[in-house]
């Protein structure tokens, strides 16, 4: 008999009750206290324009693709309601975000409960749905993070079902198609999750082979080794001069190093289980790879990396790669169980001949659907917008390439570069990194640890994770596979590298949604192993559920109180404006005016009779981006007939704008929030 899903019903009821309470509070709460990010209103305004037949445009004129497509698609029917009432779509959206939070919590409960026990899954679900920190980072701002979190959790859930299916029966094309579609949704929820989709493909295609576990780790090892080699050789700010060389070396190391490692048997169980033979083969593989990489790098560097690079980076990278490859294989050897057995003794070439057709057919189905969908989307972008990828990402990479710290600039230190910072926008592994960083700071004040205190605590946590794996080898390996932790881990690190490897400015804390979910799964994994160990000392499921109840009370009560404080009833006057900048513009400009703002998402949504043009380019056209790069943006706005610009004149004289609007600007004595409302002489300087 199927169990009554009482926990899921209670969870959904509680989340949705709080969501409805917040959604129907004073109208001004929605704009002043809940949906406050400019970036969210970029979606809202574009979705509104699409619903009203204007196409994919923020200002009604310029075509834009500066968004993640799945969330925009969801927003379109919601913001069709804006033609009746500007606040109504925000109320509906808050309820939708609450539903996404509840649905993600239920998926975590089912996934982790299926692997360990329902009580363990309940802990993870409660944290995700009733942590105020998760609410602020993931759901409150109205960004794509809510749908991205749901899609990642859904993909992980499908991977768990696939894990059970392929071990019991032959894998059908239907299984692969279902996983491909889940990966496509995840990819379109946030386009930088393409790396997760790629890692999931390796996890699926190479099932039953050591490649499944080692290949993702080896790919990460090569990325990390090259980047660390550059950081050892030079300061982080100097690295960005050689970012093209780093990419070139990574590509060479991957294209040469992975096949070489395979040919030397480094992905065969019987080789790994022989420590001496494995060490010798790894050394030979590293030597051959380094030799070939050196020859090709020196031969073609002038073409692919014209800025050159320090040659010492190659041997440093080789040494680090050797250590990483050795370390991962020693870890896997340490997790051997009695049932572990060597492969049939086939050589790598013989094994490839036996398996390649199956690998190819499965790969064609999965990657054909997943990356084929991405290719079609990129082709449509090229036709519709003149560029293959979202213009917002291109602009932020352009900012990062500049000498100044434009909108924050690229990562400033190695911790932020590697996503290991414990505060700020580079804190990718929150909440673990945040908590350990705070502990490290407190230990430093007592003189216990030095500047490496934080890295030591991270290493101790990683060691604890491995010890729990080692203590419960058989169950832990099964749980690790069912939770999909390895492909999630690989995808998360590649996403971090993708932002920082070339320098990316203005990255935000909400980018790291995959990392946040992975942290939850890893902590749930550790809790699940501890739960299994405690069962041996007569911990009963009833006691576990009592502990869950206590944890729920500690979370839900303050969560509910915070929402009540944030979203009161009867506090605002009905005539109070929804947005301060929109109100200021309405008071000091004529109806029908076109106003340029370096941002402007909130104002654009709440202004009925004005047009807001985004000047930083994040939600503008590709043509405008080219004009910015060529210092023709002033002329571009003039041709649009812009009447006013609301901006800080000092910022407009700095990078990336460099004063290119000045010939058309006429300052006034009207200021708001440090910005000057200036007239724009569209008829010429």
Supply the key terms.
single chain, 685 residues, 6-stranded mixed β-sheet, globular
Task: Chart the SSEs and their pairings.
Layout: H1 6-23, H2 27-34, H3 38-51, H4 69-79, H5 88-115, H6 118-130, H7 132-139, H8 145-168, H9 173-189, H10 194-205, H11 211-233, H12 236-239, H13 243-263, H14 269-272, H15 275-304, H16 313-334, H17 348-385, H18 391-400, H19 414-417, H20 432-445, H21 453-471, H22 473-482, H23 485-500, H24 513-535, H25 541-566, H26 580-588, E1 594-597, H27 601-606, E2 611-614, H28 622-629, H29 633-640, E3 644-647, H30 649-652, E4 665-666, E5 671-672, E6 675-680
Parallel strand pairs: 1-2, 1-3
Antiparallel strand pairs: 3-6, 4-6, 5-6
Helix pairs in contact: 1-5, 3-4, 5-6, 5-8, 6-24, 6-25, 8-9, 9-10, 9-17, 10-11, 10-17, 10-23, 11-13, 11-16, 11-23, 13-15, 15-16, 20-21, 21-22, 23-24, 28-29
Low-confidence stretches: 339-343
Q: Estimate percent helicity.
A: 55-70%
Average residue-wise pLDDT: 92
**Tally of separate helices:** 30
- State the total count of DSSP E strands: 6
Class by helix and strand content?
mainly alpha
- Largest sheet geometry: 6 strands, mixed
Which radius of gyration do the C-alpha atoms yield?
27 Å
Question: What gap, in angstroms, lies between the N and C termini?
Answer: 79 Å
Instruction: Quote the beta fraction.
Output: under 5%
Question: Any idea what the shape is?
Answer: globular
């Amino acid at each position: 008999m199927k169990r009554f899903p009482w926990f899921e019903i209670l969870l959904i009821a509680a989340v949705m009750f709080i969501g409805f309470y917040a959604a129907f509070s004073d109208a001004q709460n929605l704009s002043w206290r809940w949906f406050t990010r400019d970036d969210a209103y970029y979606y809202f305004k574009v979705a509104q324009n699409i619903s009203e037949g204007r196409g994919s445009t923020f200002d009604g004129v310029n075509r834009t693709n500066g968004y993640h497509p799945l969330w925009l698609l969801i927003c379109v029917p919601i913001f069709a309601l804006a033609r009746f009432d500007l606040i109504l779509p925000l109320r509906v959206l808050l309820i939708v975000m609450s539903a996404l939070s509840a649905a993600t919590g239920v998926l975590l409960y089912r996934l982790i409960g299926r692997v360990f026990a329902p009580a363990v899954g309940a802990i993870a679900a409660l944290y995700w749905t009733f942590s105020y920190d998760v609410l602020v980072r993931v759901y409150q701002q109205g960004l794509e993070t809510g749908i991205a979190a749901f899609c990642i959790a859904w993909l992980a859930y499908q991977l768990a079902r696939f894990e059970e299916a392929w071990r019991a029966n032959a894998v059908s094309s239907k299984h692969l198609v279902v996983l491909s579609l889940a990966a496509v949704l995840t990819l379109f929820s946030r386009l930088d999750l393409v790396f997760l989709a790629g890692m999931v493909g390796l996890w699926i295609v190479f099932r039953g082979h050591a490649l499944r576990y080692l290949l993702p780790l080896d790919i990460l090892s090569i990325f990390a080794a090259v980047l660390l080699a550059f950081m050892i050789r030079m300061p982080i700010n100097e690295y960005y001069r050689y970012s093209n060389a780093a990419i070139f070396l990574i590509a060479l190391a991957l294209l040469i190093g992975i096949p070489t490692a395979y040919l030397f048997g480094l992905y065969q169980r019987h080789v790994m289980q022989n420590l001496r033979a494995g060490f010798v083969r790894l050394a030979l593989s590293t030597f051959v790879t380094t030799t070939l990489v050196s020859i090709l790098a020196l031969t073609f560097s002038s073409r692919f990396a014209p800025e050159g690079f320090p040659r010492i980076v190659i041997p440093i990278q080789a040494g680090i790669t050797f250590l990483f490859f050795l370390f991962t294989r020693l870890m896997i050897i340490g997790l051997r169980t009695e049932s572990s057995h060597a492969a049939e003794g086939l050589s790598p070439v013989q094994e490839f001949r036996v398996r390649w057709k199956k690998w190819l057919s499965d790969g064609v189905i999965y990657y054909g659907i997943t990356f084929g969908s991405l290719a079609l989307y990129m082709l449509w972008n090229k036709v519709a917008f003149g560029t293959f990828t979202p213009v917002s990402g291109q602009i932020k990479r352009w900012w990062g390439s500049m000498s100044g710290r434009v909108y924050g600039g690229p990562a400033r230190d190695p911790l932020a570069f590697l996503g290991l910072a414990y505060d700020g926008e580079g804190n990718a592994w929150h909440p673990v990194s945040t908590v350990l960083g705070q502990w490290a700071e407190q230990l430093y004040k007592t003189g216990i640890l030095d500047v490496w205190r934080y890295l030591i605590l991270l290493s101790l946590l990683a060691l604890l994770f491995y010890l729990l794996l080692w203590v419960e080898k058989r169950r832990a390996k099964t749980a690790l596979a069912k939770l999909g932790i390895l492909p999630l881990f690989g995808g998360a690190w590649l996403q971090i590298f993708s932002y920082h490897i070339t320098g990316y400015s203005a990255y935000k804390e909400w980018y790291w949604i995959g990392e946040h979910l992975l942290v939850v799964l890893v902590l749930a994994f550790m809790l699940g192993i501890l739960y299994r160990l405690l069962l041996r000392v007569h911990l009963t499921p009833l006691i576990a559920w009592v502990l869950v109840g206590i944890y729920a009370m500690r979370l839900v009560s303050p969560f509910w109180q915070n929402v009540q404080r944030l979203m009161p009833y009867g506090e605002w006057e009905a005539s109070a404006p929804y947005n301060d900048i929109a109100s200021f513009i309405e008071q000091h400009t004529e109806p029908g005016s076109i106003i340029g703002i370096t941002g402007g998402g909130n104002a654009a949504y709440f202004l009925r009779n004005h047009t807001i043009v985004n000047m930083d380019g994040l939600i503008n056209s590709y043509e405008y981006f080219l004009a910015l790069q060529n210092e023709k943006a002033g002329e571009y706005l003039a041709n649009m007939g812009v009447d006013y610009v609301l901006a800080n004149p000092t910022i407009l004289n700095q990078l990336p704008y460099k004063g290119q609007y000045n010939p058309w600007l006429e300052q006034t004595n009207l200021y708001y929030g440090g910005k000057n409302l200036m007239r724009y002489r569209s008829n010429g300087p």
